[in-house]
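Run log, item B.
One chain of 152 residues. Sequence copied directly from the ordering sheet:
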Amino acid sequence: MTPLDPATMTSTSSASASALGSSIAASAESAPLVWEKSFDQLLNRLRQQLLGQEQFTLTLTAETSQFMRFNRAKIRQTGQVLDGNLFLTWIAGTKTSDRALPFTADVATDWPALQAAVKDLRQEIPQLPDDPYLVVPAGHGASRDVYHGQLL
């Protein structure tokens, strides 16, 4: 098991996206592989939903870590954390809006939540002012950062 393995993965697309997630059922060793596979599936589905001039960025942050709680020099609790979040930024013309969602790495669970977020963002964006700081993503870029810790 990896004692500490927080990770971030980002993708952009002219139809754009990024991610990484967690599965409570997955072991610490296989969790990043499950996260990436699930993220890629969500990303591909999301790209197919784009209309007209829409673009998006999708970012996944996730963590796999073990912990111990001490009290009076005794170990009181040990455990493992598998946690992930998706951050979706929807871009329509010169307007942007975003949502944060939990990531379970189960496409059957995550996809309906992502679809609902896109629906809400599409309704919200026309009411927003232009974003003067908008930098529109170019291409289908992706980035991936993994930070390993060896504390135990």
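Observations after the first pass:
- The first strand starts at residue 7 and ends at 13.
- The CA atoms of residues 117 and 123 lie 10 Å apart.
Flagged for discussion on Thursday.
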